[in-house]
Amino acid sequence: MKKFLILICSLLCLLPSASAVERLRERVYLATDRDVYVAGDAVWLSAWCVDAASGKLSSFSKIAYVEVHSSTGMVQTAKISLDGGRGAGRLTLPSTLPTGNYRLFAYTRLGASEEGFDPLTGARTLSVFNTLSTERVESGVELVAQAPTARVPESAGALSLRADDGAVSGHTRVTVTNNGTEAVGFSLSVRHEDGIPAPDGAHITDFVRGIHELPAARGFDTAVIPEYEGEIIHAHVSGLDMAKLGNVADKYAFISSPGTGESLYTESISSDGSATFFTSNIYGDREMFLEIEGIDRDNICHMELESPFLNLPAGDIPQLQLYNGWASALELRGLGMQLEKNFDADTLYTALPARTHRIFDERECIRYILDDYTRFPVMEELFIEFISELRVRRVDGKRELQAWVPDQQGDHYFSSGTVLALLDGIPVLDHEKILSYDPLLVREVDIYADSYFVGIRGFSGIVNFVTYKGTLPSMQFADNVRIVDFQGCSIPLAYTCEGVGPEYPDYRQTLYWHPLLTLAPGESMTLECKTPAYSGRFELVAEGLTGQGNPVSARNGFTLR
Questions:
Q1: pTM to 2 decimals?
Q2: CA distance 20 to 9
């Protein structure tokens, strides 16, 4: 019997070494493409998850939670998938943010389980200017008659940066060289230097110094499950009073999102109405379908997802010093933000490898492309005429799908066990609904004719009906199905702008951003950077860590004319 997803077993295997897990003190550092933004900008992120005891990357947790705070509370969030302690993502600052300083930090649930955990080790301060509104953070902005100066972060490590001076709307070459004796993993930003100073905040050297100065751990919340495989999603039943919770205890709850079934998870509901789903990380913001199997009309209830963000204290955020001499620079920044939103395109981004866990093995798929056959107006006729691996039988007065599956000796038979029917990756637990569905909306039928486990729920075969649109058109779900917006992990991207053409009104403030670069000792790399349609001074900024956990920080500049 094949098991798609038994993450619980993986976690249980870790229990004998629980003391080792407790000693792991994870801290997360974020590098950003800039330190000064306008409301509506994208903030590009590069994450390092570090074991504070050794100072080296921690490969344990697979997800980091990002929070942005004003002086009055949390204003934006993001999730970053981690692989070997490294991750990449982005968040978009709301266009309604008032002008002021904001605090940015990240953490893992394992790290935050430490008693007295301080999320501000390595926290950054971001200055945000709203160029479309005069609203300011209350008591958070000070008008000054003279432009303030910024602290220049100290250089560290042996990384050198160089770029050729160039012309606007062309290209410049950026060369990065590792002159040290250790491999370096780093982020690289090429950005406009317009004279608006960065606010005081931690940089990679401050972060490394801070984790070495951490006081001894006082203890850990052992009830927190480490997210070793990916995000652990917590949910609970709503719509029933406590007296009726027993009616749903031990029933199976499903969460899923449209696709090929890679974001499908199931778990049993505990006696207190809660359910915990162990995922391998779900990418992108999407709709999530929540359903409880076997709920009767007298006990209609729904699942609700709990927020994974802890809304941790952000400390005292310094005031933003506002100087009226920045008006023209902010006008250019605001123009760049609006143009990028209006002309946003995939040509600006380069996809980076993402750690995934496919539930279905394509090699075991029996696929029927329906346009290759005579099209029938009734779904059941497909199984009568040419899909021999499935049949329909009446069980207790209702039609159900049955699959042709092998037994332990390899002989095949039509199992009377439950077949999991999916429509665009979403479970349709009532087979009558799928058998009544219009087959002319379906492009293909994918059959996995074997016995499977999805989470801890077993099925005698799985069949996915894939529509042309992939959006479950015309499907009417049961009353207990709830559809909610879900914030998944940020899709890892580099902002390389390789496809920017001459028709693009190019006023980008960040010209190039790559969150996951590596260089071996003595190695160099040369990058082509597309230059914008305006002149000025630009800077190169790299931050990173060596394999031994030593900080790397380097800066240089160039001019476009």
A1: 0.93
A2: 18
